From TrEMBL:
Keywords assigned: CBS domain
Lineage: Bacteria, Pseudomonadati, Bacteroidota, Flavobacteriia, Flavobacteriales
Matches recorded under SMART domains: CBS (SM00116)
Protein name, as recorded: CBS domain-containing protein
InterPro entries hit by this protein: CBS_dom, CBS_dom_sf, Diverse_CBS-Domain
Origin species: Kordia algicida OT-1
SUPFAM superfamilies reported for this sequence: CBS-domain pair
Keyword Cell wall biogenesis/degradation attached: no
Domain CBS: 11-68, 86-139
The keyword Transferase appears for this protein: no
Amino acid sequence: MKKRTPVSTIMTANVITLNHTDNLDTAERLFKANNIRHIPVVSGDEIIGMLSYTDLLRISFADGAYEEEENVETVVYNMFTIEQVMAKNLISVGSHTTIKDAAEILAKKEFHALPVVDDGKLVGILTTTDLINYLLDQY
């Protein structure tokens, strides 16, 4: 295993994002259509938060039995904005941050995705799944 490998080698570079003005119905559709669990929230070019699928589940009345349905009752979603639900105090890493350093951050914190930001611009996202796949590739 290479100790200085940067996160840019394993991150997702084509990041699906939400605009802070989008609604939670849009977020749910993106989560399900792309089979993802974290979406950075942007305002213009600036990342201002991170929305996780778990965040949506916390505020909805839909349980896991309905995950495969396309038209889950979303009345609750209209009661909240993305900005009210998203995580705001983000820790980000640069694309040259080592995988080891990023793994240490994720191991110590209670979240499962890190935005990758270079010069103030979102360039990727690194998730615990990316790290697990990287480790599996080493064997």
